[in-house]
Amino acid sequence: MKTIPTGTKDSALILSSIGEILHLQGKYEDAEEIYRKALEIRRNSYASTHPLIANSLVNLARIYRRKSKNDKALVIFKEALTIQEECYKHSHVDIAMNLNNIATTLLFQGMIKEANSYLTRAISILRKYYQSDHINIIQVF
Predict the structure, then answer these.
(1) pLDDT at residue 130, as a whole number
(2) N or C: which end of the chain has fewer CB atoms below 10 A?
(3) Cα(11)–Cα(16) distance, rounded to whole angstroms?
(4) CA–CA separation, 77 vs 94, rounded Å?
(5) Can you tell me the distance from the alpha carbon of 12 to that of 4, in angstroms, rounded to the nearest whole number?
């Protein structure tokens, strides 16, 4: 990792990709560390409402959910949602995917009614972009 230029926007992208690989390998502690570094770089490089910051937050929250730290994951997913809604003005696929992340986390916590409201909103957004048999809509159901 010493060959990655540190502190640049490009290095944040590279770190995010490495974090995803580690995540897929089940190396959650390592992935968390890498995702945190990418988030820090992006926070130092972009405005606070930039979609790449939301992206980094979602990556980090997914790790916390995987580690059964659902309360922490939920806070971070919601922080990302706030940024996404500011960037995209409420109707974007990234918002729908994150609404689904929030709903899934709520389901893990047994909060079915609240999860349903997030899923309903996610499906409403996805239907604007995809046909009803598209994989992104099917996965939300």
Answers:
(1) 78
(2) C
(3) 8
(4) 12
(5) 9
| Topology of domain 9-140, CATH | 1.25.40
The reported pLDDT for the residue numbered 132 is 72
What are the Cα distances from residue 136, in Å, to 9, 60, 103?
Answer: 29, 21, 15
User: pTM for this structure?
Assistant: 0.88
The encoded tokens of residue 139 equal 């996965």
Task: Name residues of the chain where pLDDT drops below 50.
Answer: 1
Residue closest to 37 by CA, chosen among 7, 79, 73: 7
pLDDT of residue 1: 47
The reported pLDDT for the residue numbered 7 is: 72
To the nearest 10°, report the CA torsion of 122, 126, 128, 132: -120
Angle at 126 between CA 42 and CA 28, to 5 degrees: 40
Report residue 103 as tokens.
């709903």
Please tell me the distance from the alpha carbon of residue 42 to that of residue 100, in angstroms, as a whole number: 24
Measure CA 79 to chain center. 10
Name the nearest CA neighbour of 116 among 140, 83, 138.
Answer: 140
